[in-house]
# Entry
Amino acid sequence: MLKNILCTFIGSIGLVTTAAAQPNTIDCSAFSKRSDGTWYVGAPTTFDVGNTTSITVAVRAVGRNFMNIAGDDLFDLIEAKCGKERWQPTADHAGSDH
# Structure
């Protein structure tokens, strides 16, 4: 049983590593972590992920499964790149996703 739990745990770490390995030009300063765990972007920000270029996101909360880019969840890409350095929960922006 412990072996199954360990394999599941290691497998979930692998998913985050895959997202972190995807080359991208996400600008962490454009995103702030909200108290509900989502990432908020106000002003438009444009970035590339892998071979997908010129992706623009603006005035939105980005949560899990919001957008799949080149096989990776945008939320996971932001978490992997910006999560550790930008963990400062902010007040929700009018409590909405737009």
User: Anything to note?
Assistant: The chain is about 30% helix and 25% strand. The longest strand covers residues 52-57. The helical segments are 2-21, 74-82. The mean pLDDT is 78.
